[in-house]
Write a structure and sequence with these properties.
The chain is α/β, with parallel strands linked by helices. The chain has a single domain (3-272), classed as Alpha-Beta Barrel (TIM Barrel). 41% of the residues lie in helices and 11% in strands. The radius of gyration is 17 Å and the shape is globular. The chain starts with a strand and ends in an 8-residue tail after the last helix. The chain binds zinc ion (ZN).
Length: 273
């Protein structure tokens, strides 16, 4: 069983424009269509059984319409697990998170570099409280592909969210903090949160970590708390699966990382279909 815990698609109408904007901003190229049919094709080629789809609201006004779309996409369960959008300025996070829960949405994604917040800022607390201990919170973590002047979601700030909300189910993307690996090791390894592997494996031009260090981080954190993620369409799901399968770790740990951990976290039952 293979679950990609970090992928992005958009409604058909806006997908090509949204991806073109992100390609330009990051100087990267998408390797597939960021649409429902596009990711299904990619999943078939890569033997990925399910993808967790992450959406980001760049304004509070987008929150409800993104969540309505994600609820529609959830009709493809268990192949797609859509996580909801939320925004630090959204006026009634409790009510919208309750609505998400009723629609079957299993968590949210927050992206500090698009949404301008610090994870440990107290104005974020109502969101964390509303997520309670059942919904999953995915943070973009660390720097960006194109370095930003000031990183908002540092590993130490994530650690302080864990201190304040010990029951919150947290995933820190990009192995806990893209290009902040020293801080990841200092503040996050061994803590009760998940780290995903999205956009981490070295590719030409983005060699910010060695495969040996990726294994060291996984091992030190515990293979039971690592999620395979790709950042599709910015990474090729087939190549990313091969990256995990090619690691010099035992098969039991590969199975946890590739799918079993995500199935448990998101309560995905691939056998019920
Ligand atoms: Zn991403």
């Amino acid at each position: 069983m293979i679950i990609d815990a970090h992928a992005h698609i958009f409604p058909d109408k806006i997908a090509s424009k949204a991806i073109a904007g992100l390609e330009q901003q990051y100087g990267v190229n998408a390797c597939g269509e960021a649409t429902v049919p596009g990711i299904r094709t990619s999943m078939q080629a890569a033997d990925v059984d399910a993808s967790v789809l992450l959406s980001i609201a760049t304004t509070p006004a987008q929150v409800e319409s993104i969540n309505n779309w994600l609820a529609e996409i959830s009709a493809y369960a268990p192949y797609f697990i859509g996580l909801g959008a939320m925004h630090p300025e959204y006026p009634h996070p409790e009510a919208e998170i309750r609505r998400m829960r009723e629609m079957g949405i299993k968590g949210i994604k927050l992206h500090s570099e698009f949404q301008h917040f610090y994870p440990d800022d107290e104005r974020m607390y109502p969101i964390y409280e509303a997520l309670s201990d059942d919904m999953v919170l995915v943070f973009h973590a660390g720097d960006e592909v194109t370095p930003v002047r000031h990183v908002h979601t540092n590993p130490d700030r994530i650690a302080s969210v864990l201190d304040s909300f010990p029951d919150l189910k947290v995933v820190a993307a990009h192995l806990g903090g893209y290009r902040c690996w020293d801080e990841v090791e200092r503040h996050l390894l061994g803590r009760d949160l998940y780290l995903d592997t999205a956009y981490v494996f070295p590719i030409p031009g983005h060699e910010h970590i060695t495969v040996e260090r990726i294994i060291d981080i996984m091992e030190a954190h515990g293979f039971g708390r690592i999620l395979f993620g790709t950042d599709y369409p910015f990474r090729d799901q087939r190549k990313e699966v091969a990256n995990i399968q090619g690691l010099d770790i035992d098969d039991r740990h590969k199975a946890l990382v590739l799918g079993e951990n995500a199935a448990a976290l998101f309560n995905i039952d691939m056998n019920g279909t």
